[in-house]
Write a structure and sequence with these properties.
The complex is a heterodimer of chains A (about 350) and B (about 210). A nine-stranded mixed sheet of chain A has the order 1-5-6-12-11-10-7-9-8. In chain A, strands 2-4-3 form a three-stranded antiparallel sheet. Chain A has a three-stranded parallel sheet with strand order 14-13-15. The mean pLDDT of chain A is about 90. Chain A is elongated. By secondary structure, chain A is an alpha/beta fold. Chain A has helices at about 10-25, 35-40, 70-75, 120-135, 145-155, 160-170, 175-185, 190-200, 205-215, 220-230, 275-280, 320-335, 355-360, and strands at about 25-30, 35, 55, 60-65, 85-95, 105-115, 140-145, 200, 240, 255-260, 270-275, 285-295, 310-315, 340, 350-355. In chain A, helix 6 (about 160-170) runs antiparallel to helix 7 (about 175-185) and helix 7 (about 175-185) runs antiparallel to helix 8 (about 190-200). Chain A has 13 helices and 15 strands. The longest helix of chain B has 25 residues, at about 185-210. Chain B has helices at about 10-25, 55-60, 75-80, 120-130, 145, 160-165, 185-210; strands at about 5-10, 40, 45-50, 70, 85-90, 95-100, 110-115, 135, 155-160, 170-180, 180-185. By secondary structure, chain B is α/β, with parallel strands linked by helices. Chain B contains seven helices and eleven strands. Classes of the chains: A alpha/beta (about 350), B alpha/beta (about 210).
Chain lengths: ~350, ~210
Amino acid sequence: MKDVQLLRREEQAIYGLRGLYRKYGYTQFKMSKFEEYDLYVRNKSFLVSDHMITFTDADGRLLALKPDVTLSIVKNTKDGETGLKKVYYNENVYRASGDGNGIREIMQVGLECIGDVDEYAVSEVLYLAAESLASISDTYVLTLSDVRILLSVLDKTGLSPEGRAQALQYVREKNVHGILALAKTEGVDGGALSRLAALSGTPDAVFPVLSEITGEAEAVSELIALARRLEAAECRGRICIDFSTVSDTKYYNGIVFKGFIPGVSTAVLSGGEYDNLMTRMGRTSKAIGFAVYLNLLERLSDGESEPDTDVLLIYGEATPAETVLCEVNRLTAGGERVLAVKDAPEKLTYRRIVRMEEKA
Amino acid sequence: MKYLNIALPKGRLGEKVYTLFEKAGFPCPSIRENNRKLIFENPSVGVRYFWVKPSDVAIYVERGAADVGVAGKDILLEYSPDVYELLDLDIGKCRMAVAAPKDFKDDPSKTLRVATKFKNIAKSYYAKKGRDIDIIHLNGSIEIAPILGLSDVIVDIVETGTTLKENNLDVFETVVPISARLIANKASYMFRGGEIERICKELSVGTEETK
Protein backbone atom coordinates (compact mmCIF):
# COMPACT_ATOMS: atom_id res chain seq x y z
CA MET A 1 0.00 0.00 0.00
CA LYS A 2 1.41 3.38 -0.93
CA ASP A 3 -1.04 5.66 0.84
CA VAL A 4 0.94 7.67 3.43
CA GLN A 5 -2.34 8.34 5.24
CA LEU A 6 -2.28 4.72 6.36
CA LEU A 7 0.71 5.48 8.54
CA ARG A 8 0.37 6.63 12.13
CA ARG A 9 1.38 10.20 12.96
CA GLU A 10 4.85 9.21 14.20
CA GLU A 11 5.38 6.84 11.24
CA GLN A 12 4.47 9.64 8.83
CA ALA A 13 6.96 11.85 10.65
CA ILE A 14 9.77 9.28 10.27
CA TYR A 15 8.96 8.95 6.58
CA GLY A 16 9.10 12.71 6.09
CA LEU A 17 12.18 13.32 8.24
CA ARG A 18 14.29 10.60 6.63
CA GLY A 19 13.49 12.08 3.24
CA LEU A 20 14.38 15.55 4.49
CA TYR A 21 17.75 14.56 5.96
CA ARG A 22 18.73 12.51 2.90
CA LYS A 23 18.05 15.56 0.74
CA TYR A 24 20.74 17.47 2.64
CA GLY A 25 23.40 14.78 2.27
CA TYR A 26 22.90 12.94 5.55
CA THR A 27 23.34 9.18 5.44
CA GLN A 28 21.68 6.73 7.76
CA PHE A 29 23.63 5.50 10.75
CA LYS A 30 22.43 2.09 11.88
CA MET A 31 23.68 0.74 15.15
CA SER A 32 23.34 -2.16 17.49
CA LYS A 33 20.64 -2.14 20.15
CA PHE A 34 23.28 -2.72 22.84
CA GLU A 35 26.30 -0.75 23.91
CA GLU A 36 28.91 -1.23 26.62
CA TYR A 37 27.56 0.08 29.92
CA ASP A 38 30.89 1.75 30.61
CA LEU A 39 30.31 4.33 27.85
CA TYR A 40 27.16 5.57 29.57
CA VAL A 41 28.58 5.50 33.10
CA ARG A 42 31.43 7.76 32.03
CA ASN A 43 28.98 10.27 30.57
CA LYS A 44 26.05 9.82 32.92
CA SER A 45 25.02 13.43 33.12
CA PHE A 46 24.83 13.69 29.31
CA LEU A 47 21.92 11.26 29.42
CA VAL A 48 18.35 12.45 29.94
CA SER A 49 18.02 9.80 32.66
CA ASP A 50 20.68 7.60 34.21
CA HIS A 51 18.37 4.60 34.65
CA MET A 52 18.99 1.94 32.03
CA ILE A 53 18.49 -1.74 31.35
CA THR A 54 21.75 -3.62 31.78
CA PHE A 55 22.67 -7.25 31.28
CA THR A 56 25.77 -9.41 31.04
CA ASP A 57 26.87 -10.55 27.59
CA ALA A 58 28.07 -14.13 26.93
CA ASP A 59 31.70 -12.99 27.41
CA GLY A 60 30.98 -11.34 30.75
CA ARG A 61 30.90 -7.74 29.52
CA LEU A 62 28.21 -5.54 31.04
CA LEU A 63 25.99 -4.17 28.29
CA ALA A 64 23.10 -1.73 28.30
CA LEU A 65 20.10 -1.36 26.04
CA LYS A 66 20.84 1.94 24.32
CA PRO A 67 19.49 4.88 26.36
CA ASP A 68 21.02 7.37 23.92
CA VAL A 69 22.21 7.52 20.31
CA THR A 70 24.62 10.47 20.22
CA LEU A 71 27.23 8.81 22.47
CA SER A 72 27.29 5.71 20.24
CA ILE A 73 27.67 7.82 17.11
CA VAL A 74 30.52 9.82 18.61
CA LYS A 75 32.21 6.62 19.79
CA ASN A 76 31.96 5.14 16.30
CA THR A 77 33.28 8.24 14.57
CA LYS A 78 36.93 8.43 13.63
CA ASP A 79 38.65 11.53 14.92
CA GLY A 80 40.86 13.87 12.97
CA GLU A 81 39.32 13.20 9.57
CA THR A 82 38.94 16.27 7.43
CA GLY A 83 35.53 17.41 6.30
CA LEU A 84 32.19 16.68 7.85
CA LYS A 85 30.44 13.49 8.76
CA LYS A 86 26.71 13.95 8.40
CA VAL A 87 24.52 11.14 9.67
CA TYR A 88 20.89 10.68 10.63
CA TYR A 89 19.35 7.91 12.69
CA ASN A 90 15.99 6.41 13.45
CA GLU A 91 16.33 4.30 16.56
CA ASN A 92 14.46 3.22 19.64
CA VAL A 93 16.12 4.12 22.92
CA TYR A 94 15.30 2.83 26.38
CA ARG A 95 15.23 5.24 29.28
CA ALA A 96 13.26 6.15 32.40
CA SER A 97 10.38 8.48 31.66
CA GLY A 98 11.32 10.70 34.59
CA ASP A 99 8.05 10.41 36.51
CA GLY A 100 8.71 7.11 38.23
CA ASN A 101 6.94 5.06 35.58
CA GLY A 102 9.96 2.86 34.87
CA ILE A 103 11.90 2.46 31.66
CA ARG A 104 10.13 3.10 28.35
CA GLU A 105 10.92 2.53 24.71
CA ILE A 106 11.21 5.89 22.98
CA MET A 107 11.27 6.31 19.23
CA GLN A 108 13.85 8.90 18.17
CA VAL A 109 14.87 10.39 14.87
CA GLY A 110 17.75 12.79 14.73
CA LEU A 111 20.95 13.85 13.08
CA GLU A 112 24.53 14.56 13.98
CA CYS A 113 27.06 16.66 12.12
CA ILE A 114 30.63 15.94 13.24
CA GLY A 115 33.96 17.36 12.03
CA ASP A 116 34.84 20.83 10.78
CA VAL A 117 31.54 22.35 11.85
CA ASP A 118 31.45 25.88 10.41
CA GLU A 119 28.87 28.65 10.32
CA TYR A 120 27.08 27.07 7.37
CA ALA A 121 26.92 23.62 9.02
CA VAL A 122 25.39 25.14 12.18
CA SER A 123 22.86 27.11 10.10
CA GLU A 124 21.97 24.01 8.10
CA VAL A 125 21.40 21.90 11.23
CA LEU A 126 19.20 24.63 12.71
CA TYR A 127 17.32 24.96 9.43
CA LEU A 128 16.77 21.20 9.36
CA ALA A 129 15.54 21.35 12.96
CA ALA A 130 13.01 23.99 11.91
CA GLU A 131 12.02 21.96 8.84
CA SER A 132 11.68 18.84 11.02
CA LEU A 133 9.16 20.70 13.17
CA ALA A 134 7.40 22.02 10.06
CA SER A 135 7.01 18.48 8.74
CA ILE A 136 5.21 17.51 11.95
CA SER A 137 3.10 20.59 12.58
CA ASP A 138 1.99 23.70 10.71
CA THR A 139 2.76 25.83 13.75
CA TYR A 140 5.91 25.55 15.84
CA VAL A 141 8.38 27.50 17.92
CA LEU A 142 12.12 26.88 17.76
CA THR A 143 13.86 28.37 20.78
CA LEU A 144 17.55 29.26 20.60
CA SER A 145 20.08 30.00 23.27
CA ASP A 146 23.86 30.07 23.54
CA VAL A 147 25.74 28.50 26.42
CA ARG A 148 28.63 30.98 25.99
CA ILE A 149 26.32 33.97 26.58
CA LEU A 150 24.66 32.35 29.59
CA LEU A 151 27.99 31.38 31.16
CA SER A 152 29.56 34.79 30.60
CA VAL A 153 26.65 36.48 32.39
CA LEU A 154 26.77 33.84 35.12
CA ASP A 155 30.55 34.34 35.54
CA LYS A 156 30.06 38.06 36.04
CA THR A 157 27.68 37.48 38.98
CA GLY A 158 30.47 35.96 41.06
CA LEU A 159 28.14 33.34 42.56
CA SER A 160 29.65 30.40 44.49
CA PRO A 161 29.87 26.99 42.70
CA GLU A 162 26.72 25.76 44.53
CA GLY A 163 25.04 29.07 43.77
CA ARG A 164 25.90 28.74 40.06
CA ALA A 165 24.24 25.30 39.82
CA GLN A 166 21.15 26.65 41.57
CA ALA A 167 21.15 29.76 39.36
CA LEU A 168 21.24 27.62 36.19
CA GLN A 169 18.20 25.71 37.46
CA TYR A 170 16.45 29.05 38.10
CA VAL A 171 17.26 30.22 34.56
CA ARG A 172 15.76 26.95 33.27
CA GLU A 173 12.60 27.77 35.27
CA LYS A 174 12.51 31.48 34.33
CA ASN A 175 12.54 31.94 38.08
CA VAL A 176 13.54 35.61 38.29
CA HIS A 177 12.58 35.99 41.96
CA GLY A 178 14.71 32.91 42.77
CA ILE A 179 17.78 34.39 41.05
CA LEU A 180 17.38 37.71 42.83
CA ALA A 181 16.90 36.04 46.22
CA LEU A 182 19.94 33.80 45.65
CA ALA A 183 22.09 36.77 44.60
CA LYS A 184 20.95 38.69 47.68
CA THR A 185 21.87 35.76 49.95
CA GLU A 186 25.35 35.58 48.42
CA GLY A 187 25.75 39.36 48.38
CA VAL A 188 26.21 39.61 44.60
CA ASP A 189 24.32 41.35 41.79
CA GLY A 190 21.82 39.04 40.05
CA GLY A 191 20.22 41.77 37.94
CA ALA A 192 21.77 40.83 34.58
CA LEU A 193 21.19 37.10 35.02
CA SER A 194 17.55 37.61 36.02
CA ARG A 195 16.99 39.82 32.96
CA LEU A 196 18.57 37.16 30.76
CA ALA A 197 16.31 34.46 32.26
CA ALA A 198 13.19 36.51 31.58
CA LEU A 199 14.18 37.30 28.00
CA SER A 200 12.09 35.64 25.29
CA GLY A 201 11.27 36.85 21.80
CA THR A 202 12.21 37.35 18.18
CA PRO A 203 15.82 38.32 17.36
CA ASP A 204 14.80 41.91 16.64
CA ALA A 205 12.91 42.23 19.91
CA VAL A 206 15.61 40.59 22.00
CA PHE A 207 18.77 42.08 20.48
CA PRO A 208 18.68 45.54 22.12
CA VAL A 209 18.06 44.09 25.60
CA LEU A 210 20.64 41.37 25.10
CA SER A 211 23.27 43.91 24.02
CA GLU A 212 22.49 45.94 27.12
CA ILE A 213 22.96 42.91 29.36
CA THR A 214 26.11 41.54 27.77
CA GLY A 215 27.69 44.50 25.98
CA GLU A 216 29.47 43.87 22.67
CA ALA A 217 29.91 40.12 22.60
CA GLU A 218 30.81 37.92 19.67
CA ALA A 219 28.45 35.17 20.79
CA VAL A 220 25.54 37.62 20.87
CA SER A 221 26.15 38.82 17.32
CA GLU A 222 26.51 35.21 16.17
CA LEU A 223 23.28 34.12 17.86
CA ILE A 224 21.31 37.04 16.48
CA ALA A 225 22.79 36.53 13.00
CA LEU A 226 21.88 32.83 13.11
CA ALA A 227 18.30 33.56 14.20
CA ARG A 228 17.94 36.21 11.48
CA ARG A 229 19.36 33.78 8.92
CA LEU A 230 16.68 31.26 9.89
CA GLU A 231 13.98 33.91 9.62
CA ALA A 232 15.31 34.87 6.20
CA ALA A 233 15.19 31.20 5.14
CA GLU A 234 11.43 31.60 5.55
CA CYS A 235 11.02 29.02 8.25
CA ARG A 236 7.28 28.71 8.68
CA GLY A 237 7.38 28.73 12.48
CA ARG A 238 8.53 31.28 14.98
CA ILE A 239 12.20 31.60 15.91
CA CYS A 240 12.45 32.62 19.53
CA ILE A 241 15.55 33.48 21.49
CA ASP A 242 15.02 32.21 25.01
CA PHE A 243 17.74 31.54 27.57
CA SER A 244 15.63 29.10 29.56
CA THR A 245 16.73 26.68 26.84
CA VAL A 246 19.51 25.42 29.08
CA SER A 247 21.40 22.20 28.49
CA ASP A 248 24.18 20.68 30.55
CA THR A 249 27.11 23.07 30.23
CA LYS A 250 29.58 20.22 30.79
CA TYR A 251 28.69 18.85 27.35
CA TYR A 252 27.22 21.71 25.36
CA ASN A 253 29.41 24.69 24.49
CA GLY A 254 27.55 26.92 22.02
CA ILE A 255 24.13 27.09 20.42
CA VAL A 256 21.44 24.99 22.13
CA PHE A 257 17.86 24.74 20.91
CA LYS A 258 14.49 23.17 21.53
CA GLY A 259 11.37 22.77 19.39
CA PHE A 260 7.76 23.01 20.51
CA ILE A 261 4.52 22.25 18.66
CA PRO A 262 0.96 22.94 19.81
CA GLY A 263 -0.73 20.07 21.62
CA VAL A 264 2.45 18.60 23.10
CA SER A 265 3.32 19.76 26.60
CA THR A 266 7.10 19.39 26.36
CA ALA A 267 9.78 20.03 23.74
CA VAL A 268 9.56 17.55 20.84
CA LEU A 269 13.01 18.46 19.56
CA SER A 270 16.21 19.14 21.42
CA GLY A 271 19.78 19.70 20.31
CA GLY A 272 22.92 21.76 20.39
CA GLU A 273 26.65 22.13 19.79
CA TYR A 274 28.40 19.57 21.95
CA ASP A 275 32.15 20.13 21.43
CA ASN A 276 32.68 19.66 25.19
CA LEU A 277 31.32 16.12 24.98
CA MET A 278 33.71 15.46 22.09
CA THR A 279 36.63 16.71 24.20
CA ARG A 280 35.53 14.57 27.14
CA MET A 281 35.52 11.57 24.82
CA GLY A 282 39.02 12.40 23.60
CA ARG A 283 37.96 13.82 20.24
CA THR A 284 39.19 17.02 18.65
CA SER A 285 36.34 17.45 16.16
CA LYS A 286 33.41 19.78 16.66
CA ALA A 287 29.85 18.50 16.67
CA ILE A 288 26.23 19.59 16.54
CA GLY A 289 23.04 17.57 16.36
CA PHE A 290 19.48 17.15 17.51
CA ALA A 291 16.86 14.52 18.25
CA VAL A 292 13.12 14.51 17.60
CA TYR A 293 11.09 12.62 20.23
CA LEU A 294 8.49 10.89 18.12
CA ASN A 295 6.80 9.10 21.00
CA LEU A 296 5.39 12.49 22.02
CA LEU A 297 3.39 12.70 18.79
CA GLU A 298 1.21 9.71 19.69
CA ARG A 299 -1.33 11.84 21.53
CA LEU A 300 -1.54 14.54 18.88
CA SER A 301 -5.02 14.84 17.46
CA ASP A 302 -5.37 14.51 13.69
CA GLY A 303 -8.53 16.63 13.74
CA GLU A 304 -11.72 14.74 13.03
CA SER A 305 -10.97 11.06 13.57
CA GLU A 306 -12.03 8.76 10.78
CA PRO A 307 -14.47 5.86 11.42
CA ASP A 308 -13.13 2.36 12.09
CA THR A 309 -14.31 1.25 8.64
CA ASP A 310 -16.05 2.68 5.58
CA VAL A 311 -18.52 -0.16 5.07
CA LEU A 312 -19.93 -2.47 7.67
CA LEU A 313 -21.07 -5.52 5.73
CA ILE A 314 -23.46 -7.73 7.66
CA TYR A 315 -24.07 -11.17 6.24
CA GLY A 316 -26.47 -13.80 7.53
CA GLU A 317 -26.21 -17.47 8.43
CA ALA A 318 -27.61 -18.38 5.03
CA THR A 319 -25.38 -16.11 2.93
CA PRO A 320 -22.91 -18.24 0.91
CA ALA A 321 -19.25 -17.44 1.67
CA GLU A 322 -18.42 -16.91 -2.01
CA THR A 323 -21.17 -14.29 -2.27
CA VAL A 324 -19.73 -12.42 0.76
CA LEU A 325 -16.19 -12.61 -0.64
CA CYS A 326 -17.37 -11.37 -4.01
CA GLU A 327 -19.19 -8.41 -2.41
CA VAL A 328 -16.22 -7.55 -0.19
CA ASN A 329 -13.88 -7.58 -3.20
CA ARG A 330 -16.25 -5.43 -5.22
CA LEU A 331 -16.42 -2.83 -2.45
CA THR A 332 -12.67 -2.83 -1.71
CA ALA A 333 -11.94 -2.45 -5.42
CA GLY A 334 -13.84 0.81 -5.21
CA GLY A 335 -11.33 1.99 -2.59
CA GLU A 336 -13.47 1.44 0.47
CA ARG A 337 -12.45 -0.31 3.67
CA VAL A 338 -14.86 -3.14 4.46
CA LEU A 339 -15.53 -5.09 7.61
CA ALA A 340 -17.60 -8.19 6.89
CA VAL A 341 -19.17 -9.76 9.98
CA LYS A 342 -22.34 -11.55 11.01
CA ASP A 343 -23.00 -9.29 13.97
CA ALA A 344 -21.97 -5.66 14.26
CA PRO A 345 -19.31 -5.23 17.00
CA GLU A 346 -20.22 -2.85 19.79
CA LYS A 347 -19.04 0.78 19.53
CA LEU A 348 -17.79 0.26 15.95
CA THR A 349 -17.93 3.38 13.81
CA TYR A 350 -18.56 3.23 10.04
CA ARG A 351 -19.67 5.41 7.17
CA ARG A 352 -22.43 3.09 5.89
CA ILE A 353 -23.88 -0.32 6.50
CA VAL A 354 -24.73 -3.00 3.91
CA ARG A 355 -26.87 -5.98 4.92
CA MET A 356 -26.20 -9.02 2.72
CA GLU A 357 -29.00 -11.06 4.19
CA GLU A 358 -31.60 -8.68 2.90
CA LYS A 359 -30.00 -8.88 -0.55
CA ALA A 360 -29.98 -12.71 -0.48
CA MET B 1 -12.20 30.23 21.29
CA LYS B 2 -9.19 28.59 22.89
CA TYR B 3 -9.37 29.12 26.61
CA LEU B 4 -6.36 29.78 28.76
CA ASN B 5 -6.57 26.96 31.31
CA ILE B 6 -5.74 27.87 34.89
CA ALA B 7 -5.37 25.23 37.62
CA LEU B 8 -6.15 26.52 41.10
CA PRO B 9 -5.47 24.68 44.35
CA LYS B 10 -8.70 23.68 46.11
CA GLY B 11 -9.19 25.28 49.51
CA ARG B 12 -8.56 28.58 51.25
CA LEU B 13 -5.35 29.35 49.34
CA GLY B 14 -7.14 28.73 46.03
CA GLU B 15 -9.85 31.22 46.92
CA LYS B 16 -7.24 33.84 47.79
CA VAL B 17 -5.45 33.11 44.52
CA TYR B 18 -8.66 33.42 42.51
CA THR B 19 -9.27 36.84 44.08
CA LEU B 20 -5.83 37.89 42.83
CA PHE B 21 -6.66 36.68 39.31
CA GLU B 22 -10.02 38.46 39.47
CA LYS B 23 -8.40 41.73 40.50
CA ALA B 24 -5.83 41.25 37.75
CA GLY B 25 -8.62 41.33 35.15
CA PHE B 26 -9.42 37.66 34.68
CA PRO B 27 -12.79 37.29 36.44
CA CYS B 28 -15.06 34.27 36.26
CA PRO B 29 -18.12 35.04 38.40
CA SER B 30 -19.53 31.50 38.18
CA ILE B 31 -16.64 30.26 40.31
CA ARG B 32 -18.20 32.02 43.33
CA GLU B 33 -21.46 30.08 42.98
CA ASN B 34 -22.02 27.63 45.75
CA ASN B 35 -21.99 24.28 43.96
CA ARG B 36 -19.79 21.23 43.48
CA LYS B 37 -18.63 22.02 39.96
CA LEU B 38 -14.89 21.89 39.39
CA ILE B 39 -14.57 23.66 36.03
CA PHE B 40 -15.63 27.26 35.36
CA GLU B 41 -15.37 29.27 32.16
CA ASN B 42 -15.61 32.91 31.25
CA PRO B 43 -15.71 33.24 27.45
CA SER B 44 -15.62 37.04 27.60
CA VAL B 45 -12.06 37.03 28.95
CA GLY B 46 -11.09 33.61 27.55
CA VAL B 47 -10.21 31.86 30.79
CA ARG B 48 -11.16 28.48 32.19
CA TYR B 49 -10.46 27.82 35.86
CA PHE B 50 -10.47 24.45 37.54
CA TRP B 51 -10.04 23.35 41.12
CA VAL B 52 -7.60 20.51 41.71
CA LYS B 53 -5.91 19.00 44.73
CA PRO B 54 -3.05 21.41 45.66
CA SER B 55 -0.42 18.70 45.23
CA ASP B 56 -1.73 17.95 41.72
CA VAL B 57 -1.54 21.49 40.27
CA ALA B 58 2.05 21.00 39.11
CA ILE B 59 1.13 17.76 37.31
CA TYR B 60 -1.72 19.46 35.41
CA VAL B 61 0.62 22.25 34.38
CA GLU B 62 3.64 20.07 33.53
CA ARG B 63 1.50 17.83 31.33
CA GLY B 64 -0.18 20.78 29.61
CA ALA B 65 -3.76 20.17 30.84
CA ALA B 66 -3.40 23.60 32.42
CA ASP B 67 -1.41 26.43 30.82
CA VAL B 68 -0.75 28.08 34.15
CA GLY B 69 -1.45 27.26 37.78
CA VAL B 70 -0.62 28.14 41.33
CA ALA B 71 1.34 25.68 43.45
CA GLY B 72 3.14 25.82 46.77
CA LYS B 73 6.95 25.94 46.69
CA ASP B 74 6.88 22.75 48.82
CA ILE B 75 5.27 20.82 45.94
CA LEU B 76 7.69 22.30 43.40
CA LEU B 77 10.70 21.34 45.52
CA GLU B 78 9.37 17.87 46.26
CA TYR B 79 8.39 16.84 42.73
CA SER B 80 10.68 19.09 40.59
CA PRO B 81 8.17 19.41 37.74
CA ASP B 82 9.58 20.71 34.44
CA VAL B 83 7.66 24.01 34.47
CA TYR B 84 8.38 27.74 34.54
CA GLU B 85 8.15 29.32 37.98
CA LEU B 86 7.21 32.85 36.99
CA LEU B 87 6.18 34.64 40.15
CA ASP B 88 6.28 34.40 43.92
CA LEU B 89 2.73 35.39 44.88
CA ASP B 90 3.82 36.01 48.44
CA ILE B 91 0.67 34.40 49.85
CA GLY B 92 0.13 31.06 51.57
CA LYS B 93 3.35 31.77 53.42
CA CYS B 94 4.72 29.13 55.78
CA ARG B 95 7.97 27.20 56.14
CA MET B 96 9.28 23.67 55.82
CA ALA B 97 10.87 22.85 59.13
CA VAL B 98 12.49 20.15 61.21
CA ALA B 99 10.52 19.57 64.41
CA ALA B 100 11.03 17.21 67.30
CA PRO B 101 9.94 16.66 70.93
CA LYS B 102 11.04 19.56 73.13
CA ASP B 103 13.70 17.45 74.87
CA PHE B 104 15.17 16.06 71.63
CA LYS B 105 18.96 16.04 71.37
CA ASP B 106 20.55 14.90 68.11
CA ASP B 107 22.94 11.99 68.54
CA PRO B 108 25.32 12.16 65.55
CA SER B 109 26.58 8.62 66.24
CA LYS B 110 23.21 7.24 65.16
CA THR B 111 21.25 7.40 61.90
CA LEU B 112 18.60 10.08 62.26
CA ARG B 113 15.08 8.75 61.70
CA VAL B 114 13.03 11.36 59.80
CA ALA B 115 9.27 11.06 59.30
CA THR B 116 7.91 13.18 56.46
CA LYS B 117 5.52 13.55 53.56
CA PHE B 118 8.32 15.37 51.69
CA LYS B 119 11.01 12.75 51.31
CA ASN B 120 12.92 14.48 48.50
CA ILE B 121 13.11 17.78 50.36
CA ALA B 122 14.22 15.97 53.53
CA LYS B 123 16.79 13.89 51.64
CA SER B 124 18.39 16.86 49.90
CA TYR B 125 18.40 18.96 53.11
CA TYR B 126 20.26 16.30 55.10
CA ALA B 127 22.50 15.37 52.14
CA LYS B 128 23.76 18.96 52.12
CA LYS B 129 24.55 18.62 55.84
CA GLY B 130 26.18 15.24 55.28
CA ARG B 131 23.89 13.64 57.86
CA ASP B 132 22.95 9.96 57.51
CA ILE B 133 19.18 9.61 57.74
CA ASP B 134 16.46 6.98 57.54
CA ILE B 135 13.39 8.37 55.80
CA ILE B 136 9.99 7.21 57.01
CA HIS B 137 7.45 8.26 54.42
CA LEU B 138 4.05 9.06 55.94
CA ASN B 139 0.94 10.54 54.34
CA GLY B 140 -0.54 12.38 57.33
CA SER B 141 -0.51 12.93 61.13
CA ILE B 142 3.27 13.27 60.88
CA GLU B 143 3.37 14.93 64.33
CA ILE B 144 2.68 11.72 66.19
CA ALA B 145 5.66 9.85 64.68
CA PRO B 146 8.26 11.11 67.23
CA ILE B 147 5.79 10.82 70.11
CA LEU B 148 5.26 7.13 69.36
CA GLY B 149 8.96 6.54 68.81
CA LEU B 150 8.53 5.91 65.09
CA SER B 151 11.00 8.68 64.26
CA ASP B 152 13.42 11.09 65.95
CA VAL B 153 12.30 14.18 64.05
CA ILE B 154 9.77 15.22 61.44
CA VAL B 155 10.17 17.41 58.37
CA ASP B 156 6.87 19.12 57.70
CA ILE B 157 5.12 22.37 56.84
CA VAL B 158 4.71 24.75 59.75
CA GLU B 159 2.24 27.63 59.53
CA THR B 160 1.43 28.91 63.00
CA GLY B 161 3.07 26.11 64.97
CA THR B 162 -0.13 25.41 66.95
CA THR B 163 -0.38 21.73 65.94
CA LEU B 164 3.26 21.24 66.92
CA LYS B 165 2.76 22.91 70.30
CA GLU B 166 -0.34 20.85 71.04
CA ASN B 167 1.72 17.73 70.39
CA ASN B 168 4.66 18.91 72.50
CA LEU B 169 6.92 19.45 69.51
CA ASP B 170 9.25 22.35 68.81
CA VAL B 171 10.75 23.67 65.59
CA PHE B 172 14.49 23.02 65.58
CA GLU B 173 15.52 24.21 62.12
CA THR B 174 13.92 25.90 59.13
CA VAL B 175 14.54 23.95 55.93
CA VAL B 176 13.10 26.45 53.47
CA PRO B 177 10.47 29.22 53.43
CA ILE B 178 7.35 28.34 51.42
CA SER B 179 4.83 30.46 49.52
CA ALA B 180 2.51 30.11 46.53
CA ARG B 181 4.09 30.40 43.07
CA LEU B 182 2.65 31.08 39.63
CA ILE B 183 3.81 28.30 37.33
CA ALA B 184 3.41 27.83 33.57
CA ASN B 185 3.72 24.98 31.12
CA LYS B 186 6.84 25.48 28.98
CA ALA B 187 5.15 24.72 25.64
CA SER B 188 2.13 26.90 26.53
CA TYR B 189 4.53 29.73 27.32
CA MET B 190 6.02 29.44 23.84
CA PHE B 191 2.62 29.70 22.13
CA ARG B 192 0.72 31.93 24.58
CA GLY B 193 3.60 33.80 26.17
CA GLY B 194 1.90 37.19 25.67
CA GLU B 195 -1.18 36.23 27.67
CA ILE B 196 0.83 34.43 30.34
CA GLU B 197 3.21 37.38 30.77
CA ARG B 198 0.20 39.71 31.04
CA ILE B 199 -1.24 37.55 33.84
CA CYS B 200 2.17 37.51 35.50
CA LYS B 201 2.50 41.29 35.30
CA GLU B 202 -1.02 41.97 36.59
CA LEU B 203 -0.60 39.49 39.42
CA SER B 204 2.71 40.98 40.46
CA VAL B 205 1.02 44.38 40.71
CA GLY B 206 -1.77 42.77 42.79
CA THR B 207 0.78 41.03 44.99
CA GLU B 208 2.64 44.28 45.63
CA GLU B 209 -0.64 46.02 46.55
CA THR B 210 -1.60 43.34 49.08
CA LYS B 211 1.77 43.64 50.82
